[in-house]
């Protein structure tokens, strides 16, 4: 059995086993360091500038007088939210890409994001918004849409992964139309608030946004990483996986649930930041050159990407109007996507 | 039932009759109840009464736009499915309408263009760019006919669409005046200010696109047999594809500039047409062209009745909901493999 091994070493813990490839470990560590570095630089950027050394000293309890308030009270919550949300979106995207066996599958595309946008819009337009109501509506809407897609995709042509994607596209279209309709029914102020939320923004995020994401990541991510071997087998196709002793239906259900939970909690914290879920897992996979999904690496990549994009977008680095992070990720994601499509075409896989 | 030419011609006449009935309904039904006599009065010899104004200034342009945009989008969808041989091809799903929207939004936001006549060219440019991407994806490697699978094409289109939408949203966030205009336009509606004027400016482009499209029916039939057979039959596949892309761009770009992005007509209608006619493009294209406005105008009448007097339900919402459901049903059925 050396389908996924490469030059890796298996680590075993009871009935779980994890294959550890040196390159993956190096890349993962490097990405985590990069995410931390982005965080430190961002903590020092703004009206009140600090060198990375001063930031680290402040975090350790020392640092210049007054820096502690700016760094830990004002900037840290937003940056922590960005890192955590990026990790959660990327992990969710990695899971769905693995399930659908397609590098373009992500919560953006298979219905979850449109559902959560619909839930949030309903709360904003019909119930008048609210700091608790909007995220809650988003989570409920996303979960309902995911359940709907999952239920509808149980029967039909093609593999289960392909059906999931296509059904998601159909449901996304219906929900998207209803969302546009809700936007036309809103007052102008409501429409502006809704649009900002729908784009994905980290502006004004605090610990109450970051902590739930952290809790879900801690609870779900290790289990997902431990099942990555089963996922790798499932990626070989339904029949092969069953023949190799993987209960594909159960694995699929559990992974879908984990993916939806991660996307839901991240969306509730920062809105549906586009393309992180799509791009981060693929970029991570290219770096590790690994045939495995590599959810952990994807999460590290997502954290670095999202925090970096927010640092660039909010007007402290580049001059100009502060933009919500979602605008930058959409533009970068679009470019990445075109590159991916061209590459795949050249490889004859499209 | 054999699909003989006379029978199909009779069916087409029936479809045209259905279209006439729908168009009449679209003129007759509305919040303001106007009897047949009043309608006739307004159409034949108007004297400037209130009813005359309602019919001539509101309902007639709305119906005419629905006819033109519906025919364009249905034809574009049929052409796309014929070109890519992909059952899920649709100007909405593959991002062509989104490309046209982005072109229009950029023109509104960056250049301050206000009227459809101003941004139609930008919409055409956006549609052309998106169509080019789709063409690259759908035609297979170096045109050898190894077409993309339905899943891949639909995914690629959706992803392109998501990217375009993201940039679109950025424009709307940066420019709140654009947002206030765009949030109504992006839904897709036939209630356009000064509809006849808009139609006069976008109509010729739609007409040109339709003429090219109908002329392509026979070459598309040949191309469907595969590259080599098509050449043997005297068709020129490269030229056919290029002309098809041109026609799709004209049809989708002009229709989107006029009415906003209306999705899914191009998906549902060609499937319905194909169920009636079989695989011959010479019948599929005209049937799509006639049946699509039936659905569009029908949805518009339905939306008018459903929404009542105090609000507006845009037709784009109705077609997207119907079309999305049709899409899901299509995925669940066995027709997927048929193209």
TrEMBL record, chain A:
GO BP term (any one): siderophore-iron import into cell
UniProt keyword Transmembrane, yes or no: yes
GO CC aspect terms: plasma membrane
Predominant subcellular localization, coarse grouping: membrane
TM region positions: 25-44, 79-97, 109-128, 134-152, 164-186, 206-226, 253-280, 323-342
Pfam families, per the entry: FecCD
Coiled coil: none
GO MF annotation terms: transmembrane transporter activity
Keywords for the protein's UniProt record, in alphabetical order: Cell membrane, Membrane, Transmembrane, Transmembrane helix, Transport
Family: Belongs to the binding-protein-dependent transport system permease family. FecCD subfamily.
Protein name per its UniProtKB record: Iron complex transport system permease protein
Organism: Mangrovactinospora gilvigrisea
TrEMBL record, chain B:
Protein name in UniProt: Iron ABC transporter permease
Protein family according to the UniProt entry: Belongs to the binding-protein-dependent transport system permease family. FecCD subfamily.
GO cellular component: plasma membrane
Tagged with keyword Hydrolase: no
GO terms assigned for molecular function: transmembrane transporter activity
The UniProt record lists the keyword Coiled coil: no
Primary localization class, coarse: membrane
Keyword line: Cell membrane, Membrane, Transmembrane, Transmembrane helix, Transport
Membrane topology label: Multi-pass membrane protein
A biological process term (GO) from this entry: siderophore-iron import into cell
Compartments it resides in: Cell membrane
Transmembrane annotation, as ranges: 60-80, 92-113, 119-137, 205-224, 244-271, 283-307, 313-331
InterPro entries documented for this protein: ABC_BtuC-like, ABC_transptr_permease_BtuC
Superkingdom of this protein's organism: Bacteria
């Amino acid at each position: 059995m050396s389908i996924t091994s490469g030059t890796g070493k298996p680590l075993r813990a009871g009935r779980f086993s994890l294959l550890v490839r040196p390159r993956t470990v190096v890349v993962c560590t490097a990405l985590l360091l990069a995410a931390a570095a982005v965080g430190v630089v961002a903590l020092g950027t703004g009206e009140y500038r600090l060198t990375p050394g001063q930031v680290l000293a402040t975090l350790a309890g020392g640092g210049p007088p007054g820096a502690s308030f700016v760094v830990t009270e004002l900037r840290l919550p937003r940056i922590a939210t960005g890192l955590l949300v990026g990790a959660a979106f990327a992990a969710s995207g990695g899971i769905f890409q693995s399930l659908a066996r397609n590098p373009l599958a992500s919560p953006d595309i298979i219905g979850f994001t449109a559902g959560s946008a619909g839930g949030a819009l309903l709360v904003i337009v019909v119930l008048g918004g609210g700091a608790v109501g909007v995220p809650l509506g988003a989570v409920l809407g996303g979960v309902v849409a995911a359940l709907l897609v999952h239920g509808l995709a149980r029967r039909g042509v093609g593999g289960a992964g392909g059906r999931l994607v296509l059904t998601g596209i159909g449901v996304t279209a219906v929900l998207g139309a209803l969302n546009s309709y809700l936007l036309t029914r809103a007052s102008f102020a409501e429409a502006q608030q809704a649009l900002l939320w729908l784009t994905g923004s980290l502006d004004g995020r605090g610990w109450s946004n970051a902590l739930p994401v952290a809790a879900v990541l801690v609870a779900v991510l290790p289990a997902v990483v431990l099942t990555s071997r089963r996922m790798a087998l499932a990626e070989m196709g339904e029949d092969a996986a069953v023949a190799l002793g993987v209960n594909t239906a159960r694995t699929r259900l559990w992974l879908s649930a984990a993916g939806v939970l991660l996307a839901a909690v991240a969306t509730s914290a920062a809105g549906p930041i586009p393309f992180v879920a799509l791009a981060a897992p693929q970029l991570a996979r290219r770096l590790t050159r690994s045939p495995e999904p590599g959810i952990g690496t994807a999460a590290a990549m997502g954290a670095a990407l999202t925090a970096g994009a927010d640092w660039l977008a909010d007007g402290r680095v580049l001059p100009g109007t502060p933009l919500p992070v979602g605008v930058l990720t959409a533009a970068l994601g679009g470019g990445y996507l075109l590159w991916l499509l061209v590459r795949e075409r050249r490889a004859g896989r499209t | 039932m054999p699909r003989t030419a006379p029978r199909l011609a009779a069916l087409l006449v029936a479809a045209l009759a259905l279209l006439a009935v729908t168009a009449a309904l679209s003129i007759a039904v509305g919040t303001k109840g106007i009897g047949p006599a009043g309608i006739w009065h307004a159409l034949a010899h108007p004297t400037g009464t209130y009813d005359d104004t309602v019919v001539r200034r509101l309902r007639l342009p709305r119906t005419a736009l629905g006819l033109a945009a519906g025919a364009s989008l249905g034809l574009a969808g049929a052409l796309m499915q014929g070109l890519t041989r992909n059952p899920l091809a649709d100007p909405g799903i593959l991002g062509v309408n989104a490309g046209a929207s982005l072109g229009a939004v950029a023109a509104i936001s960056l250049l301050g263009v206000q009227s459809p006549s101003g941004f139609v060219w930008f919409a055409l440019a956006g549609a052309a760019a998106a169509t080019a991407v789709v063409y690259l994806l759908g035609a297979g490697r170096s045109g050898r006919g190894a077409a993309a699978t339905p899943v891949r094409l639909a995914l690629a289109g959706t992803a392109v669409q998501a990217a375009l939408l993201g940039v679109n949203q950025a424009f709307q966030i940066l420019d709140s005046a654009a947002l206030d205009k765009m949030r109504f336009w992006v839904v897709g509606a036939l209630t356009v200010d000064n509809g006849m004027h808009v139609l006069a400016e976008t109509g010729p482009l739609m007409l040109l696109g339709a003429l090219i499209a109908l002329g392509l029916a026979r070459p598309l039939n040949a191309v469907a047999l595969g590259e080599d057979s098509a050449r043997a039959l005297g068709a020129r596949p490269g030229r056919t594809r290029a002309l098809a892309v041109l026609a799709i761009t004209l049809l989708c770009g002009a229709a989107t500039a006029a009415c906003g992005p209306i999705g899914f007509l191009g998906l549902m209608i060609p499937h319905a047409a194909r169920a009636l006619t079989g695989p011959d493009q010479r019948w599929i294209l005209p049937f799509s062209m006639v049946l699509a406005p039936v659905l569009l105008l029908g949805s518009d009448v339905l939306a008018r009745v459903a929404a009542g007097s105090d609000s507006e339900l845009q037709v784009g919402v109705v077609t997207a909901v119907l079309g999305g459901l049709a899409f899901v049903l299509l995925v669940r059925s066995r027709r997927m493999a048929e193209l």
